[in-house]
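INFO batch 0412 | record 1 of 1 | parsing
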Amino acid sequence: MSELYFIITLIKYFLLPIIILITTNAWSDTTVNILGWSQDGLVAYSLNNTDKQEPIKVIFDLVDDKVIYRDMSNEKNISKWNRELRDHKIWLNMDEQPLQSIKNWNIITDIETFEKNFGVGSWISEYILHLNKNGKTKDVTHQLGLRIDNVVILGTAKNPFENRIVIFVLEKKSSWNNQGQEKQTIKAFGSHLNLGFN
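INFO prediction complete | emitting tokens
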């Protein structure tokens, strides 16, 4: 019994932190660039990963929080991508726009996480993204049914045509929590800068 307790303690307090520290380095190779905006709540952005030759381009609805179009950026799909931009009346930026800190909009963010325990550790099963502005708050999203190790805000960008921002969140899952494979998921959420605060 004492040997089992020693092994569990060793894994929980020494090995798991080392594993997490090592695997988080693999999550720093994906960047998000804003490509353009529409006047009615759409944003076009690219996901750029050093492991992939071509970026993934996305058109996202910030009002309904849903993907309108998503595809690899290669020669075969350029005409379709341009048609999607034209059909959704998206104005492209002169240059790709990097993400900015949400502090630029005088907003405080807070991610409230909920964990489930298992054996020698735990994982995040759900989280709520809160925004706070001038003492008033609102919930941007409540994500359920997860099995991740960490969740962080990558950054934001503001629509130049309206008072609305896109918030990018990175969900991290290490190899010990994903059957030997590291995984990252980038999610986008829209929020109006004035409406919905209570």
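INFO post-check: The chain is about 15% helix and 50% strand.
INFO record closed
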